[in-house]
Amino acid sequence: MSRSRKAAQRRKRVRALAFHAFMVACTVVVLYPAVWMLASSFKPSSEIIGNIRLWSDSFSVDNFVTALSGIGGVGFWTFFANSMILAILSVVGVVLSSTVSAYAFARLRFPGRKLFFAIMIGTLLLPFHVLLIPQYIMFNELGMVNTFLPLLVPKFLAGEAFFVFLMVQFMRNLPRELDEAARIDGAGHVRIFCSIMLPLMRPAIITSSIFAFIWSWNDFLGPLLYLKRPDMYPLPIALRLYVDQTSVSDYGAQMAMAVLALLPVMIFFVLFQRYIVDGVATQGLKG
């Protein structure tokens, strides 16, 4: 082997080693907050604030016992059930409303279709905070404050433009010959939608369901605005109860509940992550 070829291989190995070392360093930076949270859930509260060490000499599961016992007279499983109800109903609402709306925009021809679609896409450019006050006034006038309705009704009315856009783009890639063949056989729009479109939209539906579940599970601002009773709080709001600036704050129990709240999302993501990749990848395919 020539000297130049050996030098080239040496440089290639050095570049590969440097690249992997850089990626490992980035991984450590990204994962450090999660590792710190997990380690802090086993520490006493006195060792969490102002202590940069990950490990402690007094590890125990007392924080998890405290977290599972609840706070403010409400048990952990009540908070968990509230989060699960909101997440599951959000998924149902997003799938039902977004698929129907996407079918209308992608397959039906009606006056103003392009204008309405452009307006819907324009709502993605509006900051969420701009809509907070008018939405709160509207739901308050309707008597929906302190219920789950303000958090769920928009999901059933195709209020999530991102999911409608995702499904429209997916449906536009499906060949129209399928619709024409179904019409020749006497099928109407309902039959075409239920028997042809929905089975073919499985990747987009699963992707939307995953995102809707995770976003609803992690939502903090919405429940903070509309829910007033502790027995209706989901897990993100329940975490706030452990920190009180006027009295003693239980940071250990808060870290333990944060770990417990993170587990369902992690399990959900691990089980369905391949569907996210498939669903997003197929958006670039042309039928």
Write up this protein.
By secondary structure, the protein is an all-alpha fold. It folds into 2 domains: 61 residues, no CATH class; 214 residues, MetI-like (MetI-like fold, Orthogonal Bundle), CATH 1.10.3720.10. Helix content is 69%, strand content 0%. It has 13 helices and no strands. The mean pLDDT is 84.
CATH homologous superfamily descriptor of the largest domain = MetI-like
Helix content: 55-70%
Uncertain segments are none
Oligomeric status: single chain
CATH architecture classification of the largest domain: Orthogonal Bundle
How much of the polypeptide forms β-strand, as a percent range? under 5%
- CATH fold call of the largest domain: MetI-like fold
Largest sheet: none
Q: Which radius of gyration do the C-alpha atoms yield?
A: 25 Å
Order of helices and strands: HHHHHHHHHHHHH
Q: Counting H and I runs of at least 4 residues, what is the number of helices?
A: 13
Shape: flat
Query: By helix and strand content, what is the structural category?
Result: mainly alpha
Please give the CATH class of the largest domain.
Mainly Alpha
Q: Count every beta strand, where a strand is a DSSP E run of 2 or more residues.
A: 0
Give a quick rundown of the structure.
The protein is mainly α and 287 residues long. It has 13 helices and no strands.
Defining traits:
287 residues, mainly alpha, MetI-like fold, 2 domains, flat
Write the layout of secondary structure elements.
Blueprint: H1 3-40, H2 62-69, H3 76-107, H4 113-122, H5 132-141, H6 149-156, H7 161-172, H8 177-184, H9 189-200, H10 202-218, H11 221-226, H12 235-240, H13 251-281
Helix pairs in contact: 2-13, 3-6, 3-7, 3-10, 10-13
